[in-house]
Structure prediction request, 98 residues.
Amino acid sequence: MIRHLVMFRRLRDIAAQREIEASLVERMRGLSGQIDFARTWRLSANELDRPICWDYVLESAFDDRAAVQRFLQHPAHVALAAELRTYFEWAVCDYTEA
Prediction:
């Protein structure tokens, strides 16, 4: 099992736009319905206001590396990632679950 974690935060030079952010977050949540081979899919918002914190974390899992690659190339993911880049930056960690 490969865990795919992604942390998101609004780009520093972009003013907060709650409607746009809410739409992007809802679309991230909804992506799980289009990626039926994801074993888990959870998007959570940060709850503490600290400078080191990111705004959201996506926790997902896939059977293997090939499934992660399949996800990364999925048209729904590619399209959403292009839009996310206009509002968020992100950091990713992929690792094998022990």
Notes: The longest strand covers residues 2-10. The two ends are 8 Å apart (CA to CA).
